[in-house]
Design goal:
By secondary structure, the protein is an alpha/beta fold. It has 14 helices and twelve strands. Helix 4 crosses helix 5.
Length: 421
């Protein structure tokens, strides 16, 4: 396999393993397959970071990986996490390529990361890390080349600082350099809720595929951050019964259904779900074992494993997080006929509305929330239908079908463009 030790990580091996398996199934040209296993461009930076005390200057590592530039500008989030590394970022960039191709937005995949714990930083420290990292990668990002967005450990405010730093450097405001920023700076309405809302648009389609009535379908959501919270809100609005949600403190469970708005307000006031009065508080990992129709892993990668897959009682898994299901767990769940809506399809609502935001910034013409949500629903439902059609016609699972759709579109573009020189 044409990879280098710099990308060596479990997540990268998962990403390449998924791709290689599907590429072989498709009979993909070996030259294209080899090319797509490694990113086109990878940037690694190390920079000094001064803490508020002035007594310590720490060296921090940052990454920006652009997997594919064939389709147009690259697109992908920036995560701040203490264990982020080049292999993880490269894997996420690869998945972002397939995700963009599946929903049909004209981007290649990218991802970025800084190896730092954002929870341990003051607001001033977080701003300094963001602005310095932006300057370190400023020559590889831009509205026509590579557009960052929020990811794990980052948010609207971090994107605002990134946009401001870039704009200060070039001498004028450039809203289109980043998406997921506040609406006051050109951010799109409904962007914050886009990933969670987008995956819930697929719940009725997934339920129909399993001959389950979507009204009142019982749902458990692992993670109550940006994705999980708004998935819970959207699910409740659509008539689903959200019976459990979780965060790092544990999980809330009420078989009669949670009051999602009340849980969200509790988190806003108390930071964590623990202590919420109107539900049982259980161990966070127990959420995977609950007797529900739908399970939404919406927190971090690798939570559904070979060890706990047999305990999953849900009939449907809709992946809100990136790579929440290991390859071994995926095979076990499919062997038990659990219907899995894969992450590269299910959480593509984020990049879809990021595309909307970029278009609006470039055109200087902004849409209403109804227009944004309506177009998001249309794209997500169409993408699901396309993938489900492939799964049925090719007699494969939804993850394989989604990869076939994404890889085929990328391969076609590469063949048309040819090789330079």
């Amino acid at each position: 396999m044409p990879t280098a030790h710099e990308f060596d990580s479990p997540m990268y091996h998962e990403a390449v393993g998924q791709f290689s398996e599907v590429a072989e199934l498709m009979g993909l040209d070996e030259n294209i397959a080899d090319r797509l296993k490694v990113p086109q461009k990878s940037t690694v930076v190390a920079f000094p970071f001064r803490h508020d005390t002035y007594a310590e200057v720490e060296t921090i590592f940052g990454y920006r990986v652009q997997h594919l530039t064939t389709m147009g500008p690259t697109k992908g989030g920036i995560r701040f996490a203490p264990d982020v590394d080049l292999g993880e970022v490269a894997a996420l960039a690869m998945w972002m390529t397939w995700k963009c191709a599946i929903v049909g937005v004209p981007f290649g995949g990218a991802k970025g990361g800084v190896r730092v714990d954002p929870m341990a930083l003051s607001r001033a420290e977080l701003q300094r890390v963001t602005r310095r990292f932006t300057m370190e990668i400023i020559n590889v990002i831009g509205p026509e080349t590579d557009i960052p967005a929020p990811d794990l450990g980052t948010n609207e405010q971090v994107m605002a600082w990134l946009m401001d730093t870039y704009s200060q450097h070039v001498g004028h405001a450039v809203p289109a350099v980043v998406t997921g920023k506040p609406p006051a700076l050109g951010g799109s309405v409904a962007r914050r809720e886009a990933t969670g809302r987008g995956l819930m648009f697929l719940l009725p389609q997934a339920a129909a595929a399993r001959d389950i009535k979507p009204e009142g379908v019982t749902t458990a959501i692992h993670g109550f951050g940006n994705v999980g919270r708004y998935a819970a809100v959207a699910g409740e609005q659509m008539g689903a019964k959200v019976v459990a949600v979780s965060d790092i403190s544990g999980a809330l469970y009420n078989p009669d259904g949670l009051n999602v708005d009340a849980a969200a307000k509790w988190v806003d006031e108390h930071r964590f779900l623990e202590g919420f009065p109107d539900a049982d508080f259980i161990d966070g990992d127990k959420i995977f074992e609950l007797p529900v129709d739908v399970l939404v892993p919406a927190a971090i990668q690798g939570v559904l494993t070979e060890d706990n897959a047999d305990s999953v009682q849900a009939k449907i898994v809709i992946e809100g997080a990136n790579n929440p299901t290991t390859l071994a767990a995926d095979k076990k769940l499919r062997g038990r006929e659990v219907f899995i809506v894969p992450d590269i399809l299910a959480n593509a609502g984020g990049v879809t509305v990021s595309y909307f935001e970029w278009v609006q910034d470039v055109q200087k013409y902004f849409w209403t929330e109804n227009e944004t949500v309506g177009r998001l629903r249309e794209i997500m439902v169409r993408a699901f239908d396309d993938v489900h059609t492939i799964a049925t016609s090719e007699n494969v699972d939804m993850r394989t079908a989604a990869l076939i759709k994404g890889i085929r579109r990328v391969a076609d573009a590469k063949l048309v463009r040819g090789v330079f020189p």
